[in-house]
Amino acid sequence: MFAKQLIVNGIVEGNCHAEHIQILANGRVKGKVWSNNLSIEPGGKFFGETAEFPDHEVVNLKSKEPSSTNAMLKEAKKPELKTEAKKTA
Fold first, then answer.
1. Is 29 exposed, middle or buried (0-12, 13-18, 19+ CB in 10 A)?
2. Which of 4, 28, 73, 80 has the fewest CB atoms within 10 Å, measured from its CB?
3. For residues 81 and 6, what is the distance between their CA atoms, to the nearest angstrom?
4. Residue 52 — very low, low, confident or very high, per pLDDT cuts 50/70/90?
5. Residue 69 · residue 80 · CB < 8 Å
6. What are the boundaries of each domain within the chain?
7. What is the dihedral of CA 34, 59, 53, 74, to 10 degrees?
8. Do residues 43 and 26 lie in contact, with contact meaning Cβ atoms separated by under 8 Å?
9. How far is CA 44 from the centre of its chain?
10. What is the pLDDT of residue 63?
């Protein structure tokens, strides 16, 4: 999940990338989060790992410039092609 701001008041499982992540009292996050600003209210739960964005990897969602994060998103959306080699007699 990629967002500028992520507010969780339910269940999120998986990797999250956001400038600001806020886990509310009824929120539960399980996975790895990349954020420079993570807050958890009393009652909120977090199970996993955290990592900070290096300054150059914070994504400006209004920018039309390609970034490494945009490239990752494009790669993630590509369908996987499977080919099989056939033997001929």
1. buried
2. 80
3. 33
4. confident
5. no
6. 1-52
7. 60
8. yes
9. 19
10. 60
